[in-house]
Design a protein that fits this description.
- The protein is an alpha+beta fold.
- The protein contains three helices and six strands, in the order H-E-H-E-E-E-H-E-E.
- The chain starts with 13 loop residues before the first helix and ends with a strand.
């Protein structure tokens, strides 16, 4: 049996990495996009979400996911850990907006197909206290396939 290989990189570099490597196409993609401009990941100016408009952020996330679609094997699956978030008093339904944007931008036959949604119960998450807001005790895990087989 061939040993599993893992790639941990800036997601925007994956296309370039695969075009130069002799690595076989991935059969599984597991990722979680940054939560827009809600969190700064290490003060890097070039991070997805940091100081972007929401539309640009959503476009960048979907572009990376589409690159993964094009680079992966014909039988690949995508597991996307993603949650809703609040910004300036508004709740953004990010998991569902990603699905809609992929289909709208790339066509339902040319992108990932959502097969199921798993609810991840986060019992041991960070303690929560905020006036007028409920604790978010779960996240979504979206399960996509590349083809129906």
């Amino acid at each position: 049996m061939k040993a599993a290989r893992y790639l941990v990189k800036d997601a925007r570099a994956c296309r370039d990495y695969w075009s130069k490597s002799r690595t076989s196409r991935p059969t599984l993609v597991l990722t979680s996009p940054p939560y827009y401009d809600v969190k700064n990941y290490g003060n890097r100016r070039n991070q997805i979400g940091y100081k972007q408009t929401y539309s640009r952020y959503l476009g960048d996330v979907c572009s990376v996911l589409q690159d993964c679609y094009q680079l992966s094997s014909r039988s690949a699956t995508l597991w996307l850990v993603v949650d809703t978030f609040r910004k300036k008093g508004l709740t953004h339904l990010l998991p569902f907006e990603i699905v809609r944007r992929l289909t709208d931008d790339y066509g339902e036959n040319n992108t990932w197909k959502l097969k199921d949604i798993v609810i991840w119960s986060k019992r041991k998450n960070i303690p929560w206290h905020s006036k007028g807001r409920l604790k978010n005790g779960f996240e979504y895990i979206l399960f996509f396939v590349k083809n129906e087989r």
